[in-house]
Amino acid sequence: MTLAGSDPELEHTTTRATATGRTAYLTAATAVAVLLVAAATAGPLDGPERLMLVRNLIGLTGLAAVGAAVIGARRAWTVAATWALGALTVGPRLTAPASLLTWPVQPASWQSVLTAAATALLGAALLGFRGART
Predict the structure, then answer these.
(1) Does residue 2 lie in a domain region?
(2) What helix, strand, coil percent values describe the chain, rounded to 5?
(3) Radius of gyration of the chain (CA)
(4) pTM for the whole thing?
C-alpha cells in the first residue's frame, strides 16, 4: 500500500475506506520508522540529537502526506524536500513566527516538536479525509 493507487480511474471508484487504510498505513509506517531510528541511534546519539531526528522524521512524513493530498502522491516528496532545504537555507531563527517555520533546523524544543507533530496530524487528516490527489 502506498499514498495513492497507480490507476486514477480505479482510485475514484473505491470507497473512503481506502483513504482510511492509507492513513493507517502511513501512521504505522511512521511509527515503525521512529522505533527503528530511535533504536539505531541509541548509542551514537543521545538526548536532543535523537529527539531532533525523530521530530524531523515525523514532521517531514507529515509534509509528504500533505503533498500527496494537495499536489499528488507522485510529487509529494517535493513538499518535504523543499521545506527542509528552505529551512536549511534560512537556518535557525529565534523569533516566534520564523522559528515555527524553520522547525526542522531548530534545536530540540517543545515548540519545534509540537510544530512537527501538528504537521504530521495535518498530513494524516488531509490524507484520510481527502485522499491522495491523482
Answers:
(1) no
(2) 75, 0, 25
(3) 16
(4) 0.80
